[in-house]
Amino acid sequence: MLHGGEPLLAGRAKLGRVIAELRGQLDGLCDLDLRVHTNGVLLDDAFLDLFAEHSVLVGVSLDGDRVANDRHRRYADGRSSYDRVIRAVELLRRRRDLYAGLLCTMDVANDPLAVYRALAELDPPRIDFLLPHATWDAPPPRPTATAYADWLIQIFDVWLEEGARVPVRMFESILRTSRGESSLTESLGLEPTDLVVIETDGAYEQADSLKVAFDGAPSTGLNVVTDDLDAVAAHTGILARQQGLGGLCDTCRACPVVDSCGGGLYAHRYRTGSAFANPSVYSADLLKLITHVRHRIAMPTHALPNDTIEALAAGHGGEADMKHLLAGQRTLRRGLLAGVHTHGSAADGWDLLTRLDAEHRGAVDTVLDHPYVREWAARCLTGGGHLGYLANIAAAAAVRAGVDAEIVLQDVDGVFHLPTLGAFEAAPGSDGRLLVKDERFTLVGHPDAVWHPVRTLEANGFTVVLEDTDPHRHSHGHPVAGRLSEEEADAWQRAFSVAWTLIETDHPDYAAGLRAALSTVVPLAPPSAGGDVSSAARHAFGSVAIALPEDPATLALLLMHEFQHVKLGAVLDMVDLYDRGHAGLYYAPWRPDLRPLEGLLQGTYAHLAVSDFWRARRRAAGGRPEVQFALWRKHTADAIDSLTGSQALTPLGTRFVAGMRRSVEPWLAEPVPAEATAMAAELAERHRAKSGAQ
Predict the structure, then answer these.
(1) Is 240 helix (H, G, I), strand (E, B) or coil?
(2) GO MF terms on file (predicted)?
(3) Tens digit of each residue's pLDDT (9 = 90 or more) over 270-302
(4) Alpha helices, DSSP H, located in 147-235
(5) What crossing angle do the helices spanning 147-161 and 283-296 adopt, rounded to 10°?
């Protein structure tokens, strides 16, 4: 951004030399997005020709209609500058490829709707409303307690009613951050600020807005002649604006709109004595405005709050965080069921299910929460599922609700399955008419049908389903076990009891999320070649599939590992962390093949838990755990570097991966015996060489 003062005072020749030098030095090294911001008084076609030659976008300061603009933007002799600014904007309207937008500094003495109408009529690509610079030491003019919010709310309501036809950066940023997305401005949201100013004498400075705090506030003491940008990035003032929620004062961290407000513009927090460790001087206005916007807009039902994003990015997530993911899954499953219904068939099942949903929603939710209901629905919508199974879902809900019903079930792979309850095994070709009466259920006409109820595993008050009856569990890329014998089920119970105790004891941060959202474990068939096998299915939130390993500690590891995939899959159902059109392939240290970006992200997230597992195990025993910890912490850190270097993460994805990095970085500094480190390095090199990755 080329700005001043007024940058056009430098003249066309000097600006041309500056722009050409920047292009010559930086093109090919980075994507140079050059912009200039001007008061518009000197802007003419000659300047615009220069800017067109070098692809420089132009923004103009305009505070609204003539009355509003003349309040602060007059010549020194008192003459109005309004007509010349409007002339400049009209030039930009004819050369729209150069038109960046309009910037309006608010003054609550102006009529807000007159200001908005005047700006909108100039058809800008975007409008920026700026709160006037102020601090607690020098507060803004304030005729009422929330004058600035009230002023903006009048504009927002009209903007919304007219279909938001002109983008307004402040309003869009509130909407985006309320959905868990990134802000479009440094004055809102929790994203790190990456702004550095280079003065004409070569001095590096922080944001110009800091000048309002105290004399010399933007200074870094660094200069382009003696210092590089890495040194600037390490400056305490720059670092202070990289901390997100953790960099805010206690008042802000406890605020219900902090994920949108972000503490407000950094400069506006200043107060003598406590420096920037305060809310914005506009905090009351921001709270009122953001709350109003959220109430007016039908926000997505399941936006992820900032603290949930931070907890999940760290690799963890507790009960409250899992509730957000589960709520999103419930809505998704209901939408899929409605889509299946529109494909026809199973009208009786749909009618019964909708009737039960109106009167016994809890029972319906319990059945729809079964992980493989979504798996079945997804198959139906791609032409591969049994549409009639909708009747089985409705029947299971009727049983759980204690409602009398009679309905024909769908035979899937030789069983009449009732999700969350179990399955009838009957003679092939049987008519599966289920009668639910007096809180009992029977398969009519099949006295010899064998009922296989679901089994459960329990440890320390935590219960999960041991799912060996659902015909839709064949979705994990590995053969599933058949119906377990009593001895096999007992072996699972013994192993689960020990494994869960280990997780609760050594990994409480993971245990909280598992207890809240892991509902189902599917036994896989033991692999013929030996070794451990486990899987998570993308459409089966709440379930993991595992071949029972030889020792309970490995079962604990596999539960933690696979549940990471479950959590991240649910996050990706709600928000975009990466560009889904990105086609790059990446080395993954846990796979023999190159992986697409989502595969690398999923694997890296899962190996946060793997690294942490071995980190805890090495305290109990050295040897192999030391090697495994050294190996997986390095692999995970390297994979995070690959994710960051892909240039395909969204702003929220960048923030999420940064949270993953914060978990791993302290582990890299933990001491590991030299022999274990050497062995880990050798294993890593062997895998990379075998994969053929560069």
Answers:
(1) coil
(2) iron-sulfur cluster binding; metal ion binding; oxidoreductase activity
(3) 999 999 999 999 999 999 999 999 888 865 556
(4) 147-161, 169-178, 229-233
(5) 20
